Amino acid sequence: MRLVLVGPPGAGKGTQAEFIAEHFGIPKISTGDIFRANVSGGTDLGRLAKKYMDAGDLVPDEVTNAMVRDRLDEPDCAHGFLLDGFPRNVSQAYELDGILNDLGTTLGVVLDLNVDHDEVVRRLSGRRTCKKCKHVWHIEYDRTKVDGICDKCGGELYQREDDRPETVRHRLEVYAEQTQPLIHFYTGRKQLVEIDALGTVEDVTERAIAALTPFADA
Ligand SMILES: [Zn+2]
User: Fold this and answer.
1) What does pTM read for this prediction?
2) How many CA atoms lie within 13 A of 74 on its CB side?
3) pLDDT tens across 115-164, in order?
4) Beta pairing partners, 123
5) Please, which residues have CB within 8 angstroms of residue 23's CB and are 6 or more apart in sequence?
6) How far does CA 120 lie from the centroid of its chain?
7) How far, in Å, are 45, 114, 116, 149, 171 from residue 9 at the CA level?
């Protein structure tokens, strides 16, 4: 199972990535994890990446690509992997082709978690964070006993800037714009599988596993 997972903010991608990887017995590889491992491990690439990050700059594609290459070459990836957060664009998709080709393999499938934008806005904009203990509540799905007051510590709840409806909508639009070419690219190659990512975590995991199982030996 050599899998790329894509999905918009608010689709629960991180959680699904863990369950899917566990089910198929493959490592879950996110660019964030790779960055942290290289930086904390003090590798040459990690030191290079840190220089950019410390300066507040984006880590260039070449550095990210080299880290992904190193990670996919590790022994635990011999029987597959789940990539989360890479590729982000068509140019990185070609890069991934090259990396896998060098490693003597190919990409199996791309799973796209589909969510209705209005639903994501409802999910995310209903979140309320405690100013004191930082616990995240939800005005529909995880309500406090008293509106606006944390059940755990009595702290005051507020809506984070990131969770405001207009911010969420903007992030979804930016995501769609950036990801559309990648989706088209993999659709054209008949490597894309879409599932509806609405519903409980368990339901979505079940749907994902059902959609992916035919590719388990690919
Ligand atoms: Zn609290």
Assistant:
1) 0.84
2) 12
3) 899 988 998 999 999 999 999 999 998 999 999 999 999 999 999 998 99
4) none
5) 205, 209
6) 15
7) 28, 11, 11, 27, 7
Q: Catalytic residues, which ones?
A: 13, 88, 127, 160, 171
Give residue 204 CA to ligand 1 midpoint distance, Å.
30
Instruction: Give the Å distances, CA to CA, from 189 to 40, 148, 181.
Output: 37, 49, 13
| pLDDT one-digit tens code per residue, 74-118 | 999 999 999 998 998 899 999 999 999 999 999 999 999 998 999
* Distance from residue 139's CA to the centre of ligand 1 (Å): 15
- The residues whose Cβ lies within 5 A of ligand 1, an ion, are 130, 132-133, 135, 150, 152-153, 155
Q: What confidence tens digit (pLDDT) does each residue in 167-192 have?
A: 999 999 998 898 999 999 999 999 99
